[in-house]
Amino acid sequence: MSTITTEKQQYLTYLLTDGDSQVAVVPERGGIVTSWQIQGKEVFYLDTERFKDPNLSVRGGIPLLFPICGNLVDDTYTLAGETYMLKQHGFGRTSPWEVTQKSTDDGASLTITLKSNDETRAVYPFDFQLDFIYTLKGNTLEQRFRHTNLSGQPMPFSTGTHPYFAVADKTKLVFEIPSTDYKIKGGRDVFAYNDRFDFDQEEIDFAFINLEGQTATVKDGDTTLTISYDENYSTLVFWTVKGKDFYCLEPWSGPRNAINTGDFLLSAAPQETVETVISMTIS
User: Fold this and answer.
1) Is the entire prediction scored with pTM above 0.90?
2) Cα-atom radius of gyration of the chain, to the nearest Å?
3) Where is the secretion signal located (predicted)?
């Protein structure tokens, strides 16, 4: 049985329930998923103190990345001869979203919508509508993202997510990543991945490129996380910080600075909708 209910916490929170699985979505706080519990066990990490402060970006759950993934050089990009400023990961994760549709016909499904406004046009000169659909079916959470260009010219963008997965002991994780090539944040060199990470480092920030498949898995004891993504996603970022009980495995459609370089940059023609899909399963 599927249900969708609401709770008034600091922000209005939507609870999607299907069987023993429950997902919490906070549209007002960047459309973020803050929690995913399966039989009472939490999948995601959440820094609750940062979440409470609307002036801080959220560390935890699933922040939404649009219209860029990662950071830009000097936080700036140039388009049609004009220079604009965008902070890391764009404004999708910091904007208030609106619930526009709910369904419990086939799992618990919630559509949240973000429309362009004066604030977004000041840093990204396009009219758009984003309809992001979360669907919970048992132990699978699907994220279907629809990016509609309402402008009269092509709209370039990157899209992605930044999920924070809770972990008790990172050294026990077993990864299967569909690439042996990665770049380190801020670098151009390509390194070879040897199926393990050095968690003694203060920070690990690897962008896997040349993906050879659409699925990555992480085994944590008897639990396996499977992340699947469609062909629009070219980059898979692994990020963690020493001493923190999380790791991030992030599907990005384009690498850092793509809006400047054009590398794997998506584009929606006028009045076109570009749809991308990410799915996560716990088994």
Assistant:
1) yes
2) 18
3) none
